[in-house]
Automatic annotation (TrEMBL):
Membrane topology, as annotated: Multi-pass membrane protein
Keywords, in A-Z order: Membrane, Transmembrane, Transmembrane helix
Name the UniProt record assigns to this protein: SulP family inorganic anion transporter
Entry annotated with the keyword Transmembrane: yes
Domain STAS: 451-536
Compartments reported by the entry: Membrane
Major localization class: membrane
Species of provenance: Hymenobacter aranciens
Transmembrane residue ranges: 34-52, 59-78, 90-117, 129-151, 185-207, 219-238, 280-298, 319-342, 354-372, 379-401, 413-443
Amino acid sequence: MVSLPNTPQPGQSLAPTPIPEPATGLFSTIGQDAPAGLVVFLVALPLCLGISLASGAPLLAGLVAGIVGGVVVSWLSGSQLSVSGPAAGLTVTVLAATATLGSFQAVLLATVVAGLIQMGLGLVKAGVIGMYFPVSVIRGMLAAIGLILILKQIPHFLGADTDYFEDNDLFQFDGLNTFSAIGAAAQHIALGSVVVGTVALGLLLLWDSAPLKRLKFTRLVPGALVAVAVSVLLNQLFKIVAPALQVQPQHMVKLPVVASWQTLLGEMTFPDWAAISNPALYGVALTIAVVASLESLLSVEAVDKLDPHKRKTPPNRELLAQGVGNVLSGLLGGLPMTAVIVRSSANINAGGQSRLSAFIHGLLLLASLLFLTPLLNQIPLAALAAVLLMVGFKLTAPAIYRAQWRLGWGQLIPFVVTITAILFTDLLKGVGVGLVVGFFYILKANAKVAFIEEHENQPGQLYLRLSEHVSFLNKAGVVQALENLPRHSRVILDGTRSKVIDHDVLEAIESFRRIAPERDIELELRGIRPVEVAGH
């Protein structure tokens, strides 16, 4: 069972805090969605800037992708709670693409083509692949993201990290890795950032406590917003009474100043249409499309698990929405985008109820470029790190590990392997490793349900009835069962109730039927048609 933000932990009674049905009107949830959108905006802003920096792109490119993701994709997507924007998982892809194509302008064109490919995948209903991710792998992905958030925010919390905010890979672009960055930060602690972060974290814990959660005010105003506001005031107080504690500029939000629409247009970058004749562009576009599609499908699957109302996102519609988003982002000078789990988790944790919160976050990103730069640049990164520390803990709470342990090895091992692989590689590679292990246990489980064994009254006679559907996944179990049959026995293999028996299984049965006399086994087949076996 996945532990959900603002919901009871496993083993607790659900009766005292029932989850209300989601409202249906467009603006019926504005009371919850507006503050949640503000929180997501405060989290998304530094992420957009940092991912631009890590991608070797103009800082504005990340903001453009975030704006398109919020203002456009939020309405096209079938997900009510996911947030789209530039993703840390694509930074390496964009860096490599820039080197391959020779300019960021060419990468913008590749992003447009990638969006068209994603739209095509949605139209041919390729999104169904998202339905085949085992639940244990999805839960492992969420728990790993929670651990990454905690580990990655510690240096920012300590005020001793010049890395960009939320560099999620083990090996960072600054030459350090997750653990060495923490060690380096521990040697250069900024006391002011620690105080600001601790106060913010304390406020978040207090806001999440049972006594305060019963108050109407705390339900209307998210703790993250209070923590950020108090952190700004506290840092301003340091400036007056204790200048040595003031958070340094490099550990504050950094937003480029754009005074007007004309200035904004002057700062924007647009696609290089001459690159359309470069064959390498299409390989880059395909890579972006595949990576962005997989990451989006994984993210919305995870968001659906976290959604208190358990709403389901249509995967094909999600691919179409992400495709349109990438076409627009590329045309306007933005980075490639995906549905992103960190901002989506923050949205859920802040009480978001509908797509309106993601839309509001997009509007705020747009407005911030023109009106809010001086105010937003007063936010210490330590405060945002505290917000993400809380989000991370909720995603990887001990109750989740206990729940997986109780489900048995078949669920626990893929869960743990997924977490470990993501921590030491990246999201997509880690999920890939988890899928391999998860499918191994699926194959193992299917091998055990190929038939029902029943003993007849006659001594030495064994009756095996095949299950209703026998696929190639059951082949190993069937072969192993036949190989383990005792010598000098009579066996009835009954397939009369089976609607489907895969050809691979039929071949295995026929091969055994031919060698059964050598082991003095009398094999009777019922309802199982003979097939030709290659090599016989």
